[in-house]
């Protein structure tokens, strides 16, 4: 029975994918009537056929056997009246409409999307009668018990999800998981319907009502946590499974693939190395597995590893040239070669094969940005958000587009959503700060830059702050300087909520010290000296003899001596080892 319904569904699914003229068209079924008829049959089998539902409807409805007899009598009366009153040559008579006897149709409810209770009862009666004909010794209740199939429940939930009836889909998926907890497809569909962490906790409590903790449940929780960018907890679950679980898990490529995806999402240098190591382990365990290799190609693209990306594209193309992952890898390879037209062609093929591939949609949007096609890029990112609203790359890409077309308020909206999904990614904070800067919201911009200091690795955030200190902190107008100092301290307190005033002054002194080195490299010696004096004054105001404060004072003295030496020798073009040491020290903010 499952194969029958699955084949019918796949027929409509493939028709909606391969017969679309434009890839940006809606991916809903082309023949919605056939789709709803199939869904109606599945709902009768899985939902309307339960005992509780039949008892509720039997209170206000005539018995099923009486309805079948009534329908049979109506059909016989119709045939008899037609034979007696209508000549053979005039079957379509001219009698008035109110006197015509129309044939009762059992398919009338199928023309409407919502069926009435009477139609549902009639359909249930047909299923029950067909079951009794095939198995005369079995009762209707026994037939209903046999009909509880987890795979049919999963298929019904998939179809309900496609017409945005998500609440009903969640209920059916929970029933399917309780019947067959090893069906990973049901877990994956359930993960796509979870909107937030609160909903995840509610589902966990419902799935653990019988105190049965299945090992698939752990994999599901880790998968959802990584999807929500709560990466540390997800990685801990996977490590527990590898260390404490069965020995078979240590040679399971899926776990290493998920670990590689988690490290890929963190985007730190050490994390990226771990991600590449995990992908290397996957190739050793299963040389013909290419799932998630599009993420590996993204890492190679970002770090400009041209030769490795070409080798990877040849490897995956030799395994299966027409897989969606292979097409994404080839698209990244041509994009790295700056052949954006060919790259778009491969990403379009991947999207046509699987219109629910979020990675392919976002990469297609990136390529359209490179080709200056803002309209197509916006549509691509919006398609990605329709599939997965938690995809931060699509939100960030939309913000970049509106930034390019000089609409900062629109860009601010999308960057805010991206930052909510990735609160520890300094790129999102930098983008937000730049948009606040364009809209002349100085306090918000400074707050974003100070928050980004937690995750800055190359001093780029400090250079953003340097512009503010140069424009407002060194202004010739006293009122402007005082107002900027007040906003600056307020932004520091907002960004570093758990820091004391002494710690905030220490951070501010380090920023002054860094900017002093920066001005010295630009041969602005007067500004470098003034910033060094500001740093020294802050340390004196703290009246603290802690180790860090003494180290800052030592660096201030070294900076002043170096500036005087450079000014006396007409300046040196390069940075001295003392300046480099100071920069490294400042990264420990």
Describe this structure in words.
One of its GO terms (biological process) is protein ubiquitination. The structure is a single chain. The chain has about 600 residues and is an all-alpha fold. About 70% of the residues lie in helices and about 0% in strands. It has helices at about 1-20, 30-50, 50-60, 65-85, 115-135, 140-145, 150-160, 165-180, 185-190, 195-205, 215-225, 230-245, 255-265, 270-285, 295-300, 305-320, 325-335, 340-355, 360-370, 375-385, 390-405, 410-420, 425-440, 440-450, 460-475, 480-495, 500-520, 525-540, 545-570, 575-585. The longest helix is centred in the N-terminal third of the chain and has 22 residues, at about 65-85. It starts with a helix and ends with a helix. Residues about 50-60, about 80-120, about 125-145 and about 570-589 have low confidence and may be disordered.
């Amino acid at each position: 029975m499952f194969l029958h319904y699955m084949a019918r569904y796949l027929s409509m699914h493939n028709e909606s994918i391969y017969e679309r003229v434009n890839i940006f068209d809606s991916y809903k079924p082309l023949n919605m009537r056939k789709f709803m008829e199939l869904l109606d049959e599945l709902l009768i089998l899985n939902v309307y056929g339960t005992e509780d539902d039949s008892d509720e409807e039997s209170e206000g409805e005539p018995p099923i056997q009486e309805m079948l007899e009534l329908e049979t009598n109506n059909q016989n009366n119709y045939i008899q009246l037609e034979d007696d009153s209508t000549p053979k040559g005039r079957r379509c008579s001219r009698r008035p409409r109110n006197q015509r006897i129309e044939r009762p149709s059992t398919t009338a409810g199928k023309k409407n999307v919502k069926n009435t209770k009477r139609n549902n009862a009639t359909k249930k009666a047909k299923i029950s009668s067909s079951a009794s004909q095939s198995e005369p010794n079995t009762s209707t209740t026994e037939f209903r018990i046999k009909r509880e199939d987890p795979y049919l429940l999963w298929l019904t939930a998939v179809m309900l999800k496609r017409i945005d009836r998500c609440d009903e889909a969640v209920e059916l998926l929970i029933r399917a998981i309780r019947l067959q907890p090893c069906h990973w497809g049901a877990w994956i569909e359930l993960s796509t319907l979870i909107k937030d962490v609160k909903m995840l906790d509610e589902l966990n409590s419902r799935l653990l009502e019988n105190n049965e903790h299945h090992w698939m449940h752990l994999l599901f929780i880790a998968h959802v946590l990584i999807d929500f960018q709560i990466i540390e907890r997800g990685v801990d679950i996977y490590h527990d499974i590898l260390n404490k679980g069965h020995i078979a898990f240590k040679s399971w490529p899926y776990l290493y693939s998920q670990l590689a995806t988690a490290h890929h999402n963190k985007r730190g240098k050490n994390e990226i190395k771990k991600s590449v190591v995990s992908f290397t382990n996957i190739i050793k365990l299963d040389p013909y597995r290419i799932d998630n290799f599009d993420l590996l190609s993204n890492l190679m693209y970002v770090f400009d590893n041209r030769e490795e990306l070409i080798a990877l594209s040849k490897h995956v193309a030799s395994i299966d040239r027409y897989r969606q992952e292979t097409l994404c890898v080839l698209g990244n390879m041509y994009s790295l070669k700056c052949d954006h037209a060919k790259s778009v062609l491969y990403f379009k093929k991947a999207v046509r094969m699987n219109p629910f591939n979020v990675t392919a949609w976002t990469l297609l949007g990136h390529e359209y940005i490179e080709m200056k096609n803002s309209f197509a890029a916006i549509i691509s990112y919006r398609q990605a958000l329709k599939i997965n609203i938690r995809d931060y790359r699509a939100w960030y890409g939309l913000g970049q587009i509106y930034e390019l077309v000089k609409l900062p308020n629109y860009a601010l909206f999308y960057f805010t959503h991206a930052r909510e999904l990735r609160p520890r990614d300094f790129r999102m904070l930098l983008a937000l700060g730049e948009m606040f800067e364009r809209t002349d919201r100085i306090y918000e911009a400074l707050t974003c830059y100070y928050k980004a200091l937690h995750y800055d690795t190359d001093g780029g955030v400090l250079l953003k702050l340097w512009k503010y200190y140069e424009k407002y902190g060194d202004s010739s107008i006293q009122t402007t300087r005082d107002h900027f100092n007040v906003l600056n301290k307020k932004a520091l307190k907002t960004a570093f909520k758990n820091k004391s005033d002494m710690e905030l002054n220490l951070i501010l002194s380090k920023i002054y010290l860094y900017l002093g080195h920066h001005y010295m490299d630009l041969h602005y010696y007067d500004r470098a000296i003034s910033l060094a004096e500001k740093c020294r004054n802050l340390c004196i105001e703290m009246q603290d003899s802690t180790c860090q404060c003494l180290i800052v004072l030592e660096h201030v003295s070294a900076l002043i001596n170096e500036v005087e030496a450079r000014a006396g020798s007409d300046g040196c073009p390069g940075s001295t080892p003392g300046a480099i040491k100071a920069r490294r020290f400042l990264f420990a903010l």
